[in-house]
TrEMBL record:
It comes from Ancylobacter pratisalsi. It comes from the Bacteria. The keyword Magnesium does not apply. The chain crosses the membrane at residues 53-78, 134-159, 171-192. This is DedA family protein. The lineage of its organism: Bacteria, Pseudomonadati, Pseudomonadota, Alphaproteobacteria, Hyphomicrobiales.
Length: 193
């Protein structure tokens, strides 16, 4: 089943509509959706390594725009939508402390958390709730999300076909590692947040 799912994602990543799917998932992940864009970015870069930089750019731009939507949820709709999403991801009790930390460490919070596998939507919604500078939010989001996605794309560009071979030969192990990193990042951020 895992192999069929992998092949389905690879086939999807080779379709002309794949960049639109990448835009959708990158936007949604930064504001409300739990699945990171890597599930599309990685297979798209593996399927077409020459377009890896383009895909990273699409992913970055859509993630920052989605982050602005998350910021708006935090700034304008926190009591209804924002609080629901924050509680859904298990951060409800920590938002006040996180909001206070923004007063001293806002830049570092966005830069560091934007690179990790924790849900970026928590950062975007809380940034809006804390009324963090919109200018700096956008600048830092471009830096951190761009760095994250361009590092993934660069790695896959340079190792290209050998990455695909490695993943296909060790699909179970790669899936397990990805799941552990994702879940570990989420659980770890619950304690560090």
């Amino acid at each position: 089943m895992l192999r069929r799912l992998y092949q389905w994602v690879i086939d999807l990543s080779e379709r002309p509509s794949a960049p639109w799917a990448l835009v959708g998932i990158s936007f949604a992940e930064s504001s409300f959706f739990p699945v990171p864009p890597d599930v599309m970015l990685v297979p798209m870069c593996i399927a077409r390594p020459k377009l890896a930089w383009w895909y990273a750019g699409i992913c970055t731009l859509a993630s920052v725009v989605g982050g602005l939507f998350g910021y708006a949820i935090g700034a304008l709709l926190y009591e209804s939508v924002g609080l629901f999403l924050i509680q859904l991801y298990g951060y409800g009790e920590k938002v006040e402390a996180f909001s206070e930390a923004y007063q001293h460490y806002g830049h570092w919070i966005i830069l560091i958390k934007g690179l990790t596998p924790i849900p970026y939507k928590v950062v975007t919604i809380t940034s809006g709730f804390a009324h963090y500078s919109l200018f700096w939010f956008v600048v830092l989001s471009v830096i951190t999300r761009g760095l994250r996605f361009f590092m993934v794309a660069g790695l896959l560009y340079w190792i290209g076909p050998s990455a695909r071979t490695f993943i296909e030969e060790r699909l179970g192990l790669v899936t397990l590692i990805f799941a552990v990193v994702l879940v570990g990042g989420i659980v770890g951020s619950l304690y560090l947040f």
